[in-house]
Amino acid sequence: MLHPIDSSSPRSVVEDNPWHTGAACRSDEAGLFFAPSKEPTAARLAREEQAKRVCARCPVLLECREHALAQPEPYGVWGGLTAAERRVVLARRRRRDVELREARRVGVQQPRRIAG
Ligand code: SF4
Q1: Which residue numbers belong to the known binding site?
Q2: Which of 36, 53, 96, 102 has the highest CB neighbour number within 10 Å of its CB?
Q3: Domain-by-domain residue ranges, the chain?
Q4: Do 81 and 65 meet the contact criterion of CB atoms below 8 Å apart?
Q5: What is the pLDDT along the chain (116 residues), one digit of tens a residue?
Q6: How remote is the CA of residue 19 from the centroid of ligand 1, in Å?
Q7: From residue 61, how far is each of 28, 33, 65, 67 by CA, in Å?
Q8: Which atom, in ligand 1's list, is nearest to the CA of 55?
Q9: Belongs to which family (predicted)?
């Protein structure tokens, strides 16, 4: 999958993923979202923060983030998260799913919401 910033994305990619058309990064510098080879750590952190600032004003942040988690996309900043941050989110979701399955297996009721 191409990053939304990649203006060379085939038209079919955009048509299949209509959220791409609203991506704030389509008008930003391509180098912001992916690491060049042998990028020093301080430069990477600064670049990722810049990319996250673009994501923070993006109207399709949630769609982009869920796409990157579902693929999963192994590189770059997507939906305001770095690849390492996405790995943490995925690990938490897997752990939660395991806990929910186990709770269902042993018949533990989910706490009811109290109205009002
Ligand atoms: S959330 Fe960030 S990476 Fe995703 S489309 Fe928007 S600006 Fe691009």
Answers
A1: 25, 55, 58, 64
A2: 53
A3: 11-105
A4: yes
A5: 467 766 454 434 445 668 888 899 987 666 899 999 999 999 999 999 999 999 999 999 999 999 999 999 999 999 999 999 999 999 999 999 999 999 999 987 666 777 66
A6: 10
A7: 15, 14, 6, 10
A8: 2
A9: Belongs to the WhiB family.
> How far is CA 106 from each of CA 100, 101, 110, rounded to the nearest angstrom?
10, 9, 12
Q: Can you tell me the distance from the alpha carbon of 98 to that of 85, in angstroms, rounded to the nearest whole number?
A: 20
Looking at this protein, which amino acid is placed at residue 108? V
- For residues 86 and 17, give the distance between their C-alpha atoms in angstroms, rounded to a whole number: 20
Tokens of 4: 């939304």
